[in-house]
């Protein structure tokens, strides 16, 4: 945190000028909100736009607005559009720049800095959760049956064992072993497992044999809200499930990738403690 006498005055920062997927755009804006906190700036919100992976028949404007209204990151924030009188200062290296007073700084993301500050991601999570719940969410029945609700995010479709995105692939065997541990600890009759992925049902036979219900190629927002509502989330190497874990605040079984493990999440060598984490979470919410 900057010293008070070095804090820039009337200094703002916004994230914009992206055309990638909705999860990546939301994550980039969160990283900018975190950097603003760390450097003593004021975050100014620019709504997401030009969001990729738009469904057929949906306009670019409507698709972007749906992402914007689902996460509500701009709620309660100054809007960058209202700062037209401030000079724009593009920032190529947010991890190294010095903020200037009476300016609107513009970044694409701030991950190079914030990925070294997992505690800052954890600190902003309650505010993100409150914003998320400001708008209506998809119906997701079946969460009040008294069982432990387990969500498994298995990244397929855009990734494979080989190819351009092979580094984001997690083999079935790895996830199956983790899922067997959770089921074994909780008891098969006390667990409701939902698997979220893309592909054909026969590709996931090993998971259905463990009792998992398949949710394949479903609406992205319905899928995300399922991840948020789960008691236990077995994550993929994915910004999508990473955001679900941050907003959900549940017991997270972390899959190492380029975003950091947050305090309280369980890494591959710590998963035997998931039941203690779950009990602590339930007690805190009671």
Explain this structure:
This protein has helices at residues 22-39, 60-71, 111-114, 118-132, 172-186, 205-208, 220-229, 239-248, 274-285; strands at residues 11-15, 42-45, 78-79, 88-90, 103-107, 148-153, 191-197, 213-216, 232-234, 251-253. Strand 1 (11-15), helix 1 and strand 2 (42-45) form a beta-alpha-beta unit. It is built from 9 helices and 10 strands. It folds into 2 domains: 4-132, no CATH class; 148-285, Rossmann fold (3-Layer(aba) Sandwich). The mean pLDDT is 89. By secondary structure, it is α/β, with parallel strands linked by helices. A 5-stranded parallel sheet has the order 3-2-1-5-4.
Q: In terms of quaternary structure, what is this?
A: single chain
Number of domains: 2
Q: Number of helical runs?
A: 9
Q: For the report, how would you describe the main beta sheet? A: 5 strands, parallel
The helical percent reads 25-40%
The CATH homologous superfamily of the largest domain is termed Glycogen Phosphorylase B
Order of helices and strands: EHEHEEEHHEHEHEHEHEH
CATH topology type of the largest domain: Rossmann fold
What is the CATH architecture descriptor of the largest domain? 3-Layer(aba) Sandwich
Briefly say what this structure is.
Helix content is 35%, strand content 15%.
Lay out the secondary structure.
Blueprint: E1 11-15, H1 22-39, E2 42-45, H2 60-71, E3 78-79, E4 88-90, E5 103-107, H3 111-114, H4 118-132, E6 148-153, H5 172-186, E7 191-197, H6 205-208, E8 213-216, H7 220-229, E9 232-234, H8 239-248, E10 251-253, H9 274-285
Parallel strand pairs: 1-2, 1-5, 2-3, 4-5, 6-7, 6-9, 7-8, 9-10
Helix pairs in contact: 7-8
């Amino acid at each position: 945190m900057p010293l008070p006498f070095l804090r820039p005055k009337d200094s703002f920062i916004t994230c914009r000028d992206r055309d990638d997927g909705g999860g990546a755009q939301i994550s980039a804006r969160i990283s900018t909100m975190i950097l603003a906190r760390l450097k003593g700036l004021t975050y100014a919100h620019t709504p997401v736009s030009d969001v990729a992976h738009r469904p057929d028949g949906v306009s670019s404007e409507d698709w972007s607005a749906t992402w914007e209204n689902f996460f509500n990151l701009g709620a309660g924030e100054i809007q960058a559009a209202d700062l037209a009188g401030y000079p724009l200062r593009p920032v190529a290296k947010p991890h190294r720049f010095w903020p200037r007073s009476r300016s609107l700084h513009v970044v694409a993301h701030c991950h190079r800095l914030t990925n070294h500050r997992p505690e800052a991601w954890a600190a902003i999570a309650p505010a993100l959760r409150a914003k998320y719940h400001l708008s209506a969410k998809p119906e997701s029945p079946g969460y009040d049956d008294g069982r432990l609700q387990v969500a498994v995010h298995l990244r397929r479709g855009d990734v494979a064992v080989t190819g351009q995105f092979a580094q984001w692939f997690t083999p079935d065997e790895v996830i199956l072993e983790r899922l067997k541990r959770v089921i074994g600890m909780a008891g098969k009759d006390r667990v409701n497992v939902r698997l979220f992925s893309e592909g054909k049902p026969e590709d996931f036979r090993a998971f259905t044999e463990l009792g998992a219900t398949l949710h394949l190629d479903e609406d992205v927002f319905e899928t995300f809200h399922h991840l948020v509502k789960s008691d236990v989330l077995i994550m993929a190497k994915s910004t999508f499930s990473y955001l679900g874990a941050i907003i959900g605040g549940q017991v997270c079984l972390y899959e190492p990738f380029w975003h950091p493990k947050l305090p309280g999440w369980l890494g591959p060598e710590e998963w035997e403690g998931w039941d203690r984490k779950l009990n602590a979470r339930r007690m805190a919410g009671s």
